[in-house]
Amino acid sequence: MLTPEASLAAARDILPWLIEIRRDLHQHPELGLEEHRTSSRVKMLLDELGIEHVDGFGGTGVLGLLKGGEEGRAVALRADLDALPIEDAKDVPYRSKNAGKVHACGHDVHTTVLLGAARLLAERRAELPGLVKLLFQPAEETVGGAQFLIAGGALDDPPVEAIFGLHVEPEIEVGSFEVRYGQRNASSDTITLTVLGRSGHGAYPASTVDAIVVAAHLVTALQTVVSRNVDARESAVVSFGTVQGGSQGNIVANRVELVGTVRCLDDRIRELVLRRIRETAEGVAGALGAEVEVDVEPSFPPLVNDDAMVELVRRNAARLVGEERVFVKAMPNMGVEDFSYYLQKVSGAFYSLGVRNESKGIVHTVHHELFDVDEECLAYGVALQVLNALSVLDGD
User: What is the pTM of this model?
Assistant: First the structure.
């Protein structure tokens, strides 16, 4: 239907339209589960493209249903809608108009790319041998909005055979892509340890159980969970970010709260680490005469790409921009990404879209107040997502 050359040419033809959409979204960022204007804008554009859609996923999610001219396979493409609670410090005409909010993680780009892919595919819908599901999800940065789309049946009826998502990457040049086989992102769990001791006068510690001393031992002991329990060839992180306890310098504290994060690259290691944290914490606290409450708040699971789908993306990207501009990521990322929820249900691949351009000063990392992209990336993202969808529908 579309060769790589034709796909990129078609995407470049609509680049002014893409830039207009991206800048509009960039000027009106909304936080997770608050993306009402963004969601309305998406639905309006889908209406203009004649694409059926369903909403209500988490309140702001939208599912577009692009039906081809023939029955066939179903494939899904995903974008996220939410912004970050950061002040936009860029001096550009499309600077955020919403104080304290900015698309500093490129979700405006992701949404625009998906709309662009929808437009190119919709223009050729009579030739499409199947169904393309367009997933516009809320709250990737917070509660994992992918779960709302999944719970609402976005991957079902008919079931999708594959799903593809992308993320801006300011470390690689515009016009380039980066893929990662297998493990790509870590899981994330928040751990809260509440140490319960017995207070008293600081001059007479023998009659107390010092929760601060116990907490100090816990912080030290729990570092061995990774160093002495996880195989050195595997990866895990245990970090504590806050310690709160005590009321005065001459009073022994009876309560200390430690809050930290656990990151793992697969669920087997995740289960091991969380179990050993609980066992170690209870053992150390008990040995020192204290009690400890261990609370685990699960967050996103690890993101593990399907190697066959990654190879499909790599092959399409190479056909699009040349082998020399497609990189294979050497190491996984210990950050999280809720695309992982989709990959627990269906085969797919999550990959990176180059947005860097040093000559334009576009060099800042995501979540930075000066983050921006070279908008030429929009055409490349659209073209590759179109090729990915067509490859699945055509049975490639």
Answer: 0.94
